[in-house]
Each structure stands twice: as C-alpha cells, then as structure tokens.
Amino acid sequence: MDRRNFIKTAGSLIAGATVAQPVFASESQGSGTSGPEGRLIFPINRNWRYSRTFTDAARARDFDDSSFERVVVPHTNIALPWHSFDEKTYEFVSVYRRRFTLPVSAKGKRVFVDFEGVMTASTVWLNGTSLGEYKGGFTPFSFELTPHLDWTGENVLVVAVDSTERSDIPPFGYQIDYLTFGGIYREVALRIVPQTFIENVFARPINVLSDSPSIDVQCFLQGQSSSHEPLSLEVSLHRGDTVLAKTTKHVESTNVHDDISSTTVSLSNFGKVELWDLSHPHLYQVQVKLLRGATLSDQDHRTIGFREAQFTDHGFELNGKVIKLRGLDRHQTFPFAGQAMPGRVQRRDAQILRQKLKCNIVRTSHYPQSRHFLDACDEIGLLVLEEIPGWQHIGDQPWKDISVDNVRRMIRRDWNHPSIVLWGVRINESLDDHDFYTKTNAMAHSLDTSRQTGGIRYFQESEFLEDVFTMNDFGFPLKAPNHPRYLNTEFVGHTYPTKTIDNVERLIEHTLRHARIHDQLASNPQYAGGIGWCAFDYNTHGDFGSGDRICYHGVTDIFREPKPAAGFYKSQCDPAEEVVLEPAFHWARGDESIGFTKAVVCSNCDHLKFYVKDKLVVEVDPDRVQFPHLRYAPFVVDVGKFIEPWGDLRIEGYIQGKQVISKSMSGKGVDQKFSIVADDLSLIGEGADTTRVVLSVTDEYGAIRPFANDAIKFEISGPATIIGDNPFALIGGTGAIWIRAGEQTGTVHLRATHPTLGTQDIQITITASVTETA
User: Which residue in the list 116, 308, 429, 686 is annotated as catalytic?
Assistant: First the structure.
C-alpha cells in the first residue's frame, strides 16, 4: 500500500551540472581545534554575512556586504511559524559571504572548503572566481580553494544558495511529503592538508566474534608527491588512551596521484575485544598517520565498533543473537528553524528514540541525516537504516546520476559508524527501474562489502535487487513475508494521523494500532521487525497532512513531546532497564462519546491495580487475547462500571507480586501546575549551540492537562535568543521553544509567565567556546 497516492504529473528535467570533488569524511570537521602537523581544520561557522536576495554583484570580492545580516551556521534562510505557513516562503536564492585569512603555516599546503549540508543547490566563488555548483541538500561536498587563494591577505568565500525545489535534483521532480527548508544548515570548515594527504579512512572489523579479530583499514590517499622520500602509513588501534595494536606499511609512490588511491593496512594480534551492542556500545578509535620518511605529514582518525550485523532468514542478528527490530522513522526537521539545528539538538533526537521511546533502530527517512545524530546512535546503541534522498519520483538520467552519486557520498561519509546496519539504495516508494537500481546497489556493494543493502518499496511484486526486502505496509494484518530477509519499514502513520488534542477514542486506537502491528511482527521470525511511521510529527506540503503544513503521523508531536502511542514503544523495554506505566487516556468522566469506559495502559508490569478515590476498583493482567505475541502486552480494561463515585485515579504496577510503580491522575479537572524544563542548563557560546525548553500544564500529580492552550509569555536576558513564538500558545497542554546561545559567556535568565498559574524561571550558563581563527 502506497503511503501517498503516487503523483503522476510529468515534468521535464534539466541536465546535471558539475559535481564538486572530493567529499570530506573527517571526524575532526567542526571540532573547533586544529589538527596535527600537516593538517589543520578551521571551523568557519561564525561571521557569515547573509542576504535573502542574491545579485550578481554579491559574488565579487570587493562587494560591500556591510548591510548584510551577520549570521552563524547552522542557519535557516528564513525563520518560520511552526505550522500553517506557505512553503514558497523559503523557496528563494540567498547569498552567504565569509571573509577569512590563512595562517602562515598554510603556505605550500592545499586548502579545501567542506560543506556538510546546504539546501538545495550551492554555487561557490572564491575571490570572485567561480568554483562550480553542487546539486544536493543532504550530502556533503568540498571545493579546493588552493589555486585562487590570497596567501597573505583577506579571502572572500561566497555561496549562492538556491532553496527552490528544482526538478533536476533529488528528491524533487514531483511533490514530496516533507519540507526541505533552506540555507547553510550544517557546519562548514576549511581543511588545510599537505600536497599528499589522507582523503578518507574505512576501517572494517573482521572475525569480531572470534578470539582473534582483526581490522582491515582502507586508507585513501590523494595528491602529487613532491619529494623522493618514501611514504608510509602507520595505523594504530586505541581504546581510550591505550594503544592496542600498531603497524606500518610502505606506500608505493607510483600509487599516489591526484585521483584517489587506496592502500589497505591490516591490524591483528590485539586479542578479544568488547563488542558493540545495544546495551554496551563499546567504541574504539583507529588512527592513521601518513609519514614522509620519519616525518609526520598528515593524520586522521575514525571511531569504530566491533560488531557483526546481518539480516538472515531467521530475522536480524547482532553478534550472533537474533534481535527483533523495533523502531521509528525520523525526519530531521524542527519547528521554527527547519533543518538548521546544531549538534546538541540532533543528538537529543537520538536520545529520545533510544532512551525515551526505547527503540533499537531508526530509519533516516528519506535522506542522509546529521553526522551528530549518527555519532549519538553509535554512542548509545541505536541501530540505523540510512537511505538516499528521494520520495516516489525518479527523474531523467542526469537526475539518476546524482542519485547514484548520493549513494557514494552517503556511504563514504558514514561507513565507519557501527550503528548503521543497512544502506537504503532505492528512492522511497518508487516504482521499479532495473538499470537504475542495479547501479545504486552495485555502487553500495563496491564501496562497502560489510553491510547489506535494502530499498524501500510499497508493493511486494517489486523486483528484488538488494540484500534485504524492505517494505512499507500500512495494511492490517500485514502481508506475509515473501522473501527470507524481510523488514517492515513503515506502518500506521498516515492511515491514522493523531493529534495530542484528539478525542480519547482516537488516542487509544492510535496506540493499539502500533501495538497490533508489533504483535504480528513478533508472531513470525521471518519478520526482522518493524520501523513505524513515524517518531515525530513533521512539516509537509499543502497536498499532504492536516491542512496546516503538518503531518500528525508521529508518536510524539513536532516538539518531541509524547502522545499516548509513545507509551507503547516505551513499555517494550525490559523492566530491569526501566519500569514503565503509561496510561493511553485522559482521566475525564465524559471525554468518550458515551462516558468513560475503556482504559488502556501500556506497561511492562505483569499486573495492575486501579484505585478510584483510594478504593480498589479493578485488577487486570496484560491483554494476552488481543496481543498473544508481545512480551509486554498492553492492559485493556472496562472501568466504566467501577468509577462511581468519581475521583482521583491511582494505578499501581506489580511484577511478581511486588509493587514497583504507581501513577495518579486527578479527577478534579483543574489546571494546577505550570512548569518549564530545559534539556540542558549549560551551552557553549559559539553562536549556534541550542537546547529545547519544554512547557507543560499539569494536574497536581504531574499528568498533562491536554486541553490547556494558554499563551505563555517569555522574558529573556543574557547572551542567548529564543527560537520560537513569544508568546507561545500551548498545544495539548505542552509545547516547546529553543534557546540558542550567543557568542559571549554569561548567564541566561528565562522567565515564562502563565496567565493564571504564575511564572517559572530557569537559568542557563553560557560557557566559553574555541575562537575561530580563520
């Protein structure tokens, strides 16, 4: 079943332009520190000058940009409301200008500018000379600046950013079900390297389950050797400060040239390792040094994990153990700022998925996502299915060529992440295209033999060219697996959009639909598991969603606050990790159409007791009739005949006869408390670091009052700004704004005022950041 009616509008596509080479893959990008001898990384995220209007004059070196706005990237080309806006508002061509000077030590080196993500097409000039255009908003790109630099004076970098939905660039061509926004929305850095340098590193662990694992480290070199001194690669494996193994390999000078070449160096004899798994995601570092004679010329490093991951006809296996996958799809967009959120906010999404929703896998729908998000997945044990940009539409041959290149760039950027277990090499929900998908699949396999490929489709008759049959199935019951390696990658979602303010019957049914799907997935080992549509509500085009530019398909709202369905995902964790008791209803006497009847509670307890006004009214066990296959089935009970007289509700959860949790909900129907909670109380004064502040109105026990819609007014002082509405009207009793640090140290005071429940204050410390020297 298609997630949307397939749009059949035809369109003519324009041939692709020059694609910038090479693509960076360094973990040191944007680190705020310089590298060792031979390599320097200078983040250039601050001090950009920005205008929403591009003119030809603005690309000139001596153009007067003093009237332009001073901005810090990540940057969205225009701030927007959280809903009910016109996407044409951000579809324009803007211009960014950045002045920089180079250190004396850069002389004689090669200099590149590395962009992590610019939406959607980028034309770049240095000192008035055109460097070319890069087409694509989700993959990184680089331009070499060396021939056009002023080594002693000021240089001017100019980027014209076309944020329109150009039909010659994936995912565009037809209407897509998400918004892409605009701007330089990921970090930028200058990379200064020797004439011959390490272009990339791919470290592949081998035989990780044995007593004698090893690593094949593929070192990619680029450049012309200007010396007759021999080149060699020194590769070492580290666990913290401990060096576990080290070896050196000579590099033939004839193998080094400006086209990228590779040399593989093997590391072994370091004994058994601690495996990367879901509960203990152990990480190691591989360091690569390029030596010219005995002199260090260049070096780079990668973080890796030792794990064996594969899809089989028994399901998904991690380190030889079958694990049922349970996850959600993620869009990387946010209210007000579009995609332009920094590392801290990107990492928080991974933490919500793993720690709040207890998912063990996420799909990066429908494009490669922030490296910060993937780094967090590595660190906390969240598996990833990463896929190329697209949505249903396949363009002409130049469009396809860009898409194949997207596969290459995605994999070469992310191939060291242990969290990534599957490459998505089809355009989401597209029709078959044998030659095209033969190429995307072959590209993935040529770059990475250690991972399987998948391709997201919506019909089982689709030609199967990949290693894993990945399938969007919104029906119930689900289709039976028709291939031995079978993963469900979308369900529920658009077939039952649900808002936090919907009636209780809809909230309960939304919760139960997710539970029913996972129960069926648990019934058959050939289902590797399922990734539900979706984690967070997201902005979309007017042809989709609920008429306000939002798809309310998430188990949380667009502010990352949970709906009742989130409680189901949370309840599927082992009680040893967290004891969970999440009611899927509001405690309101007449909230259902015929008065309160059915209570649904998601919990990993084995027995619940319900009390009304401190009187035990009913006890219940998990609903094994409706959910026979779930380890932790929801509790479903008709409490209608037990709730007289009406009053406060208390639910107690028991495991093996022992009370382990209790949750209360007020029967008064009165908004009692107003609170604000920041995800972080300390930020870095770099101009982009950001944290979320969650607002909520609750009863006296802390349960959300779902129909509180009050306007909250903010006052802020100190070196930070508010991202969001001021005042902000609550939705479903909750909401959020974000606080973005300025570039000075100090203390930020935020005061939030509720019309009747008073004020709440938080204090955020802004600490010093590393100065950008370029």
Answer: 429
